[in-house]
Write a structure and sequence with these properties.
This protein is mainly α. The protein folds into 2 domains: about 80 residues, no CATH class; about 210 residues, MetI-like (MetI-like fold). About 75% of the residues lie in helices and about 0% in strands. The chain is built from 14 helices and no strands. Helix 5 packs across helix 8. The protein is flat, with a radius of gyration of 24 Å.
Length: about 325
């Protein structure tokens, strides 16, 4: 277990380094001169000499590797720099916006589980029946709708027509309802079929059939056998979905004016605020990796077979295929 944790943390650091290098390289290769952009934004008429002074002040005169290593050293020491446009601390900006995205992701995940688990349980117990086929067809239809289209539809219904909810999420706490419902509906269309498949497999497993044969109540079987066996798979699904939520809700945040890191990124990319872009990419990557690390540890802890495989990889070929190894899609 300790070896697994150390290995995972080393992978964590390696991925962060790779992401930081790629993001810095893309910014370095981007057209335009950041120093010139800042002087133009400040309305300062500049000469070639003033431009060189500004470039030296920003550390842009060195080679790519010199600039990257200098930036990386500052990051390691907790110095993310300042934004080009406002001069504000990049760290303070990230700390302000990122928790809002986490807040949105958390409630979206709760809503998704609240919709998906009961529906998946119901369809798994009625697999193949007309109600199951009807629900699966409806989910396939909803899954084809892009998230921003779903958001616009909900805005038209609940904000424009019924006036029940505000359009902008910054208006009040009720404003969080629409973006959460939008994301939860889209994610549920992907959760339910996968959970349904996993539940059907568990419901027809020898373990559950044996419990029924011994006369154990269905409610007890559901809680102690079915849910427990599906839990590692659900954790894998949640970890992937939460990771995608932290880094992939920019469109919804922008649509509903939710002050998250995704909406912030859309604005700063247009302004070419490179320190903030680099910091945000690194911040999001670290958040996604942290979530995956936590859920990996939970999966290993909950599933003895996975834990045994991590402690003794030579036993892995002898084991049956783990339920948690199924392919799952992002939410």
């Amino acid at each position: 277990m300790i070896k697994f944790i150390i290995k995972t943390i080393l992978q964590f650091v390696l991925i962060l380094l790779c992401v930081s290098f790629i993001s810095f390289l893309l910014v370095y290769l981007a057209p335009g001169d950041p120093a010139e952009s800042i002087l133009n934004a400040q309305g300062i008429p500049f000469t070639k000499e003033l431009l060189e002074i500004k470039r030296a002040e920003m550390g842009l005169n060195g080679s790519f590797m010199e600039q990257y290593l200098a930036w990386l050293v500052r990051i390691v020491h907790g110095d993310f720099g300042v934004t080009y446009n406002s001069g504000a601390s990049v760290w303070e900006q990230l700390v302000f916006y990122f928790p809002n995205t986490v807040y949105l992701a958390f409630y979206t995940l709760l809503a998704t589980l609240g919709i998906s688990l009961p529906t998946a349980l119901y369809t798994s117990y009625h697999a193949g029946k007309p109600v199951d086929r009807f629900l699966m067809a409806g989910l396939a239809f909803l899954n084809a709708i892009p998230s921003f289209v779903m958001g616009i539809i909900l805005i038209l219904i609940f904000s424009v027509q019924l006036h029940w909810l505000p359009i902008q999420a910054t208006a009040n706490e009720l404003g969080l309802v629409l973006p959460v419902i939008t994301l939860a509906m889209i994610m549920s269309t992907r959760y339910i079929p996968q959970l349904r498949t996993a539940l059907i497999e568990v419901l027809h497993s020898p373990e559950v059939e044996g419990a029924r044969g011994r006369g154990i109540r269905e409610g007890h079987i559901l809680l102690h056998d079915v849910i427990y066996n599906v839990l590692p798979f659900l954790l894998t699904l949640v970890s992937l979905s939460l990771g995608s939520l932290l880094g992939g809700v920019a469109i919804i945040e922008h649509l509903f004016s939710w002050p998250g890191i995704g909406k912030m990124l859309i604005g700063v990319v247009a302004k070419r605020d490179y320190p903030l872009i680099q910091g945000a990419v690194l911040f999001i990557t670290a958040g996604v990796l942290t979530v995956n690390l936590v859920f990996q540890l939970l999966t290993v802890w909950l599933n003895p077979r996975v834990r045994l495989a991590q402690e003794n990889p030579k036993l892995l070929p002898r084991m049956k295929r783990l339920k948690t190894s199924k392919e799952v899609s992002y939410g």
